[in-house]
Amino acid sequence: MKKLLIVPFVLICLVWVGCGDDKGTEPDPPPVVVTVTAAALASAPDSVNYSGWGSVTATDIAVPLSSWSKRGVTALPATANSISVQAAVYDDKLYMRFRWADDSMNVWRAYWEVSDVSGGDPLFETHSNSLITNFEDQLLVLFSGMAGGARDAWHWRALTTATEQVGTNGTSGFAEDMTYLSPNLTSDAGDLQIAIDNQYGTFNRPTYFHNTTSAFTGYVLPMSESDSLDIVPSGGWEIGDIVPGWVTIDSVGSMSGDRGSRWDTRANMLYSSGEYTVVLWRPLSTGNEDDLAMSSGEHITTKLGITNNKDFSFISGGSFQGFTADFTLILP
Ligand SMILES: [Ca+2]
Ligand SMILES: [Ca+2]
Ligand SMILES: [Ca+2]
């Protein structure tokens, strides 16, 4: 029965890799078997520049350009047709470090812009281009081996998960812990979103404003520094001022709800000189039924996806995203 389930899944994977480029210029190279072997480290490699990463083998995994759906644009710079992958285990957690080229740090997803101040109070609108062009960069890690052919999924997003901060050091973010079963990517159990859409009901204005209102220039609002206001705060607004489209919950305890299994995967990131470096980690076994239980010595079939300035429909949408072929992750 398992084989019957695997065959259609493999076919779907081939469609992912093969679709989207109708130019038909060059055939895909034959599949290459790539193995990433996790190292055992003596301390937690949770920082993007932790020195211990220097002793962990880095493997470049190809992202065939033919896996990008072009829609008339260049999805990523040509140098980004591979992802560098490292893996390590420490304290019963799997850490993975990813590096890839991207010439734009896209984090202005659905922001608000002041369009008029002539009436005394500012009028906001979602930037006219925002719904079309302003999304965020993302990374998706898919582990095979879940029941029914599903894949365990770590979904890192440069704005709506990476900026979520918990605790006092303010340096750690998240990747959303999810499950992929074609064609759906769904959040693990837990009813609290990792970031909150900053829209006031169905009205054309933000719900949350930073304590400094018009003076704030960051791309995400930390809720601990923000107020939820029924009336737009007055003072100091000018045409072109911007309010972020997303709010992070950070250390504020006022948000009720079960965080649950979707909050299991932590992240650190750096964007510098046209390159992302992202470290993701999670316990090998969370005990949650929507996560793959990993164990020492195991071989895990793994696949990666990256996006450039993309909305949430990572898999169902075809543009601005690319996938690797499956590779083997070997745990120490
Ligand atoms: Ca980008
Ligand atoms: Ca989970
Ligand atoms: Ca999961």
Description:
- By secondary structure, the protein is mainly β.
- It has a single domain (2-330), classed as Immunoglobulin-like (Sandwich), CATH 2.60.40.1190.
- The protein is built from 2 helices and 22 strands.
- The chain has helices at 2-18, 130-133; strands at residues 35-37, 39-40, 59-62, 82-90, 93-101, 112-116, 123-126, 136-143, 151-157, 173-181, 184-187, 195-197, 208-210, 221-222, 226-228, 242-243, 246-248, 265-272, 275-283, 299-310, 321-323, 327-330.
- Strands 1, 2, 3, 4, 5, 8, 9, 10, 11, 18, 19, 20, 21 and 22 form a 14-stranded mixed sheet that branches. Strands 7-6-16 form a 3-stranded antiparallel sheet, with no helix packed on it.
- The model is unreliable at 1-24 and 69-74 (pLDDT under 50).
- The protein binds calcium ion (3 copies).
- One calcium ion is lined by residues 152-153, 177-179, 188, 290-291.
List keywords for this structure.
Immunoglobulin-like, mainly beta, 22 strands, 332 residues, 2 helices, 6% helix, 14-stranded mixed beta sheet
Brief sketch in words of this structure:
With 332 residues, this protein is mainly β. It has helices at 2-18, 130-133; strands spanning 35-37, 39-40, 59-62, 82-90, 93-101, 112-116, 123-126, 136-143, 151-157, 173-181, 184-187, 195-197, 208-210, 221-222, 226-228, 242-243, 246-248, 265-272, 275-283, 299-310, 321-323, 327-330.
